[in-house]
Amino acid sequence: MPMEAPTTAVAGExxxxxxxxxxxxxxxxxxxxxxxxxxxxxxxxxxxLVDAVVRQAITAAEAKGRTMSCQSGCAACCRHLxxxxxxxxxxxxxxxxxxxxxxxxxxxARFAAARRRIQDSGLSERxxxxxxxxxxxLRALGRDYFRQAIDCPFLEDERCSIYADxxxxxxxxxxxxxxxxxxxxxxxxxxxxxxxxxxxxxxLLTSDDDPxxxxxxxxxxxxxxxxxxxxxxxxxxxxxxxxxxxxxxxKAQG
Length: 254
Fold this sequence. Notes:
With about 250 residues, the protein is of the alpha+beta class. Helix content is about 40%, strand content about 10%. It has helices at about 45-65, 85-100, 105-120, 125-130, 135-145, 170, 200-205, 220-230, 240-254, and strands at about 5-10, 15-20, 30-35, 35, 85, 155, 160, 215-220, 235. The strands form four sheets. It has a three-stranded antiparallel β-sheet. Strands 4-9 form a two-stranded antiparallel sheet. Strand 6 (about 155) and strand 7 form a beta hairpin.
């Protein structure tokens, strides 16, 4: 995914970053805020990039006769193990904090209940090692987690209540087989859309280690993690964060 150098836009208030996401696709121009920023400030731009990659994958799959079965009200994926990055955890915590009462308190209660369910499930040790687990072990963990039927705290009436702000792992999970198959974690007929955009790139984004070390957690732990990690958050230019994301993407998918 080659990336051109950013160019300054109107009055230096924003930058424009051009990303080529496919040989046949038109370059995608992304508006970036100026100044030194925490990484969560570029999440809206990253989400725009991810959505563009997903749309391209959908177009390619449909050209081969495959059908996307996901639709509003189909929420089996909202009970899967969704690992979110530290960047997304802080963004979700900020999102909940901005909500008025009583909704904020209701969501906090749902997060606490989901955390207790996870802690009581006996899967905590395996979940803690998920970022370095093999693909086979991660699939097995995902199936065992799904059997616990733990709703995402943001799930309401079988719909995502923060759809526009959902994490990358949710944005890229699209089934191309009948929705009925998704209800059974052992149904090997389920096929997901192949999206060349790993959520693990965000797990690595803030790490300055060489090689980068991942930071991720189950979504229900996001608020607690953000509360416990209020230490200084690194600040860089938005174009630097975007370049780091593309670099980390290459590592995550390599």
